[in-house]
Amino acid sequence: MTITLRSTAVDTPGQLEIPATQIPVTAEADVVVVGGGPGGFAAALHAARMGVSVILIERFDMPGGVHTSGLQGAANEGVGGIHTELMERFAAKGYIYTATEKDLPDWAGNPLSHYERNMKPGSAFARASFNPEGAGCEMVGMLAEAGVNAMYQTAFIDAVVDGGKITAVITHNASGLQAVRGKVFIDGTGTAELAARAGVPYVRGGGGQPPGTDWDGIKRPIPGGLLWTMTGVEYDKLARHQRTSNDPWLSRVIEEAAAAGDIPAGLYRPRMKGESVYGEAYIGHPTLDMSPISAPGTFIIWQNVPYEWALHMDESAADETRARRELRGFIDAESRFLKKYVPGFENAALSDIGRFVGIRDGRHPIGEHVFSMQDATEGHEFPDAVTRPMTKTFFWDGYRKHKFTVPYRSFLPKKIDNLLLTGASLSFTYETIFMVMRNFPWCTQTGEIAGFAAARAIGKGIGVKELEWKQPYF
Ligand SMILES: Cc1cc2nc3c(=O)[nH]c(=O)nc-3n(C[C@H](O)[C@H](O)[C@H](O)COP(=O)(O)OP(=O)(O)OC[C@H]3O[C@@H](n4cnc5c(N)ncnc54)[C@H](O)[C@@H]3O)c2cc1C
């Protein structure tokens, strides 16, 4: 069985006409999930457990997305379902590490702390993380146990659409170009790539920002980030240096290293207060930004894409390449600077760099309902709510708590009838990104909900848009 792809390229200078290509259809399933982050992983796992056949297409060697391949690894208290199961399985395998004030006195309130910097100095804290590689091993095993046909090192490259439905996706891997057919498709790419290639309308990253939040006329996406780790850090020595040298931000050592030519321009760029909605928080960090992970003495360090570069890494290969190249340069320089100048890092080693630069603000697909700030702040009640009301703190409007629900219609994109959205690819507006719509527990929940919806619709012999959503799943 083959699919014939016909080139849509016009014969103009700078474009190449590809002859119609026969692509073998090598696999077929009830449900085809593209991308195995928290959303895609949970969708594939849950649909398979409900008894339908499932194929998962993942470009890296493990599921987990930003949280494994991207090294993010933040562990949270289970929110139910697959998320709780993951936390329990990781813990049972010894893959969860919890740092507290006993190991890291004075970490709370330390300006270098990514998560605990705003706490009162000296307070008790518990920062739990999972080991990204260990977690990835466990997740690979879970998919295999459930009978998911997970295709790793396989890139999704295009969607074949007929009459408002996706009929197949085109993939590339060691076997070359292949087509995979399915009945229901699930977008777990984190950037709505499947939805976009299938023709679903979307707002670009950075789009939808309120007026007055641009800068020199350009709407910039919230920058993505490349995470990396160092092992062998002696925190007590570092903390002593911060205290005794009155250098909590390491500004003095940075100045010294810069004067010696050891800090490349742009590495410790200044914050740009008030220049954009997330400017202050995500423009990049004037000094080190880290969090304990995996084991004592191991820290994850954030390298955010400079805001001013305005990169759309989900849409442009040149932007993605630039981010990967220049952030690696920063990491190389930063790790050597730390070892040479900062007490506590003398014996530390650069141990891992994430497999990809995570995208925080990619495409926002337009769904049958686009979840908005008003939905959250006004606590809209939806008849097709997928969860009971959730209470979350929003920093957009001054760290206030809001209670709200999200409708099933935000999982259903416009224009395509057999596609479900998950995780960061769900239909929501720009401002809601940091509220709830992108965190790991919620992204896992969205995947489980999508997997449930796909399997239920297939079981009933109806489309996912015809499914009546009468009660919350969670
Ligand atoms: C730098 C950074 C830091 C973050 N920090 C936190 C945090 O501290 N706490 C928190 O809760 N959340 C955090 N987030 C947010 C959270 O990680 C994401 O919102 C969440 O991982 C999104 O889940 P997802 O499943 O939609 O997509 P992702 O996690 O992005 O996973 C997408 C998956 O799809 C695969 N994929 C993509 N395109 C293709 C393709 N063409 N072919 C095949 N496979 C493909 C990718 O390889 C990946 O495995 C952070 C995000 C970033 C980028």
Task: Characterize the structure shown.
Helix 1 runs parallel beside helix 3 and helix 1 runs parallel beside helix 11. The chain contains eleven helices and 18 strands. The relative contact order is 0.17. With 474 residues, it is α+β, with helices and mostly antiparallel strands. About 2% of the residues have low confidence. The strands form five sheets. Strands 1, 2, 3, 6, 7, 8, 9 and 18 form an eight-stranded mixed beta sheet that branches. The chain has a four-stranded antiparallel beta sheet with strand order 12-13-11-14. Strands 4-5 form a two-stranded antiparallel sheet. The longest helix has 25 residues. It folds into two domains: 249 residues, FAD/NAD(P)-binding domain; 168 residues, no CATH class. It is globular, with a radius of gyration of 23 Å. Helices cover 26% and strands 22% of the residues. Flavin-adenine dinucleotide binds next to helix 1, strand 7, strand 11 and helix 11.
